[in-house]
What we know:
3 domains; Butyryl-CoA Dehydrogenase, subunit A, domain 3; alpha+beta; 11 helices; 9 strands
Amino acid sequence: MNTDFYAIEDLLSEDQVLVQNSTADFIQKNVKPIIEEYAQKASFPQHLVSRFGEMGLFGPAIPVEYGGGGMDYISYGLIMQEVEKGDSGLRSMASVQSSLVMFPIHEFGSEAQKKKFLPKLATGEYLGCFGLTEPNHGSNPSGMETTLKKEGKHYVLNGAKMWITNSPVADIAVVWAKNEEGRVKGVIVEKGMKGFTAPEIHNKWSLRASITGELVFDNVIIPEENILPLKDGLGAPMKCLDNARYGIAWGAIGAAMDCYETAKDYSLERIQFDQPIGGFQLTQKKLSEMLTEITKAQLLALRLGQLKNAGKATTAQISMAKRNNVEIALKIAREARQILGGMGITGDYPIMRHMMNLESVITYEGTHDIHLLILGAEITGIPSFK
Ligand code: TGC
Ligand code: FAD
């Protein structure tokens, strides 16, 4: 039984199926054969950045005139799903590029910024990162301490960001900082600017094939043309997060599907007590519950995609899908690991890698509990974080 139990493919357009199949094929050929080795040695397969660009996996929903794919949000979701079947770390790299770097430049940037950066980000000539989280402000970004002060014709940036996907190898960073009035502003910081460094964070047991670092700003001079002019306030980065969280809601299903397929195949091959372990009722319960949760998650993501295409998806709806789909993916990874017994802990199978990756996915882009509280605030009208 494959993972399209409710024939979701019948609900997709020809173009969407084409995008899904070509991405799946690309991941199968270019990511699957190498990803375990890169994860084991905690190394980022940087050569894939330009390959992702060639495949059109960056900025699928950005208009074609800026180098994007001009696609709808269900296609974007399907791309995230297929990439995360390969590895959540590579989906992170791609979702940061598309939703957290290209999206804000397209949405809040000047025409000159769009023309300068978007085509290079689309091809993978440039890799970007997104700096919101700080050492003292993770779930509560409104407390950020990074400052942007006007001095004559330019601005001066000071502060530090923490846990930034892609940062040590990024060509540009979209960074959020407070101005003299305490309003949050978006800034494009370019590699090589004096006083800007991006040291790597080591010793991760999760997302080992993704590169993570800090961003440190020591009196970095920012020219006026690098300030995102069209929106300020915390709402600007939050709008980017809506997009990235939407992609994660789809992506996590990919990791869950890969774990389920691996466990199902293994259960039909592994013989114990003279029969395949898939013949035991307890294994069948695990597999049945996995497929049920994957199917529910697919339907949630698809409906959310329809709402997003119509411009109607709300932050709380996105929180529900991100929270649910990452949680079920993590539970499925744990159950799948058990079906493989001792083999489940080895790098011969992808399950343990997915499980460890999902421990980050359940924390970043808003923790599991923060999404619950966003929903709680929507239901009651009373935000609990105030
Ligand atoms: P709150 O008072 O609710 O809002 C402050 C301002 O923001 C506006 N706003 C939104 N605007 C547009 N879209 C949204 N979704 C918005 N949500 C809020 C709001 O109108 C207001 O605007 P203004 O103009 O008056 O300033 O904010 P709060 O401080 O109470 O925060 C609420 C809370 C806790 C939900 C929020 O801070 C939150 O979501 N925290 C989680 C932080 C987070 O998700 N960080 C993610 C960092 S990026 C990342 O993890 C990348 S991982 C990359 C990868 O590898 O995939
Ligand atoms: P904290 O905010 O300190 O939370 C710790 C615990 O307290 C959590 O369980 C949380 O749910 C709980 N908690 C906090 N507030 C409340 C509350 N009001 N009520 C109940 N419980 C609460 N950030 C970026 O800006 N850009 C990136 O590219 C990026 N990439 C990342 C990559 C990785 C691998 C990781 C691990 C993180 C990344 N992040 C990034 C940061 C990520 O978004 C934060 O880790 C996340 O928002 C949580 O912040 P924190 O780690 O500081 O935890």
